[in-house]
Amino acid sequence: MKNLVIGLDFGTDSVRAVLVRSDGGIVASAVHPYARWANGEFCCAARSQYRQHPLDYLEGVEATIREVLRCCDPAAVAGIGIDTTGSTPCAVDRNGTPLSLLPEFSADPDAMFLLWKDHTARREADEINAAAHRPGGVDYTRYEGGIYSSEWFWSKILHVLRHNEKVRSAAFSWVEHCDWITAELTGTTDPLTMKRSRCAAGHKAMWHESWGGLPPEEFFSGIDPLLAGIRDRLYSETFTADVPVGTLTPAWAARLGLSPDVVVAGSAFDCHFGAVGADIRPGQLVKVIGTSTCDIIVAPRVEQCVRGICGQVNGSVVPGLTGLEAGQSAFGDLYAWFKRFLSWAGEVSLPKLEAEAAALPIDPAGVLALDWINGRRTPDANAYLSGALFGLVAGTTAPAVFRALVEATAFGARRIAERFVREGISVDSVVAIGGISRKSPFVMQCCADVMNMPIRVAASDQVCALGGAMFAATAAKLWPDIEMAMEKMNSGFDAIYEPIPANVAGYETLYRRYLRYAAATEKEIMADVR
Fold this sequence. Notes:
By secondary structure, this protein is of the alpha/beta class. It has helices at 35-38, 54-68, 122-132, 153-163, 165-170, 177-186, 198-204, 217-223, 250-256, 270-277, 332-343, 350-358, 398-422, 435-439, 441-451, 463-475, 482-489, 501-529, and strands spanning 4-10, 14-21, 26-33, 51-52, 77-84, 89-92, 113-114, 173-176, 244-247, 263-265, 268-269, 284-289, 293-299, 312-314, 322-328, 368-370, 388-390, 429-433, 455-458, 493-497. The chain contains 18 helices and 20 strands. A hairpin with a 3-residue loop joins strand 12 (284-289) and strand 13. Helix 13 crosses helix 15.
């Protein structure tokens, strides 16, 4: 009897797999770090260049799936569901092969997948925004928050086309990581017929039903003639993640130790699958908290265009509901930066630093930080912004600075929730998933106090992969729809952080100071940019 499914979650640093029973319960899990990424290959932080080699992904698929299958009969596996980071596009040839898998491009960063946090395309994003906001024209960014980001699909494509003639000449089309990996496993890699993710297309590539898919050819060629013709080599139709892409090819089935009749579900971005894994409901804000954050809400019907977010797309999270995405470009990355900063003089214990920071009192007049170390994703994307520290004195300690960084990430989270509410989207409850939500009571309590809302934490530490397993169960017809899969397979919650009234009051003053300093700093930074 086929009653098992696999969820694959391609994160920033590793791929994670979970083997799940269709009636609920994780049987096994595995993690495979990306070897080339771990060595810092093809990246340059000083230029905000972050690239990943597809071999890291392919090796991770095989390693994690073979690991989780050790404890079961592989014949019981019915389906696989896959999520990835995004927007993480790559140039492909006519066969849909990433150029970096060809010998002549194997060490060319521009031929690899451009990770979500690659910000090399800031200029290109500016030009896309200028074109979209011309008086009298159609604003093709309006369902993506009204601001196109350097983190997204078209910005990155244009940047590579402008800076690498060799890649430009060889690229037939472009694919998102989530689309390519499902196509690779099912042998459906032809760029002209490949099933493309509704989630990726709607949130990052300006796809929308109201203008028949992607914006028209003249919009792109008007930005730069280098974009001419690419639209026709992409797609007009997109698919929600409950729609099967196909079944495993015989070659991949043999490589993984599975049957060729295993169904591969449609794909999406990690945060959207994480929301499904957390059993999202309308009015519930699901925060995926890791290196960055993604905040997801679903709603039955959204009449207005919500400003400053990362898109609103019908079916991007749950088919039949509008999925809305926001997030912060740095959360755990901000803490990791500070650890690296201090480690210049020797190894630093982040748990010890956190414990000492947690023991400090809230100080509305003390150290204040801005959380924009990777720019700002939302509200109102701006990759030119940078982090900052205020209020340093001779007696300032490392724990005090760390506490300010944690508070800054909580303040950024609150700004996102407030933007949703001001735009008419209800936020009735908060759920947190991801590594930080399970590892740091201090951070989670700070978020609950700053947001003045209880925060429930999902019991599983692999909720995004669990969401993938739910879509696998749906695509394989083990459940009739994703709602039933969510009900039967979710992990529940094992922690809740209630706001502490005294802390809420103290943070209110500090948050207002954060807003003032943020506004003034942004004004000065943008004056320099212009």
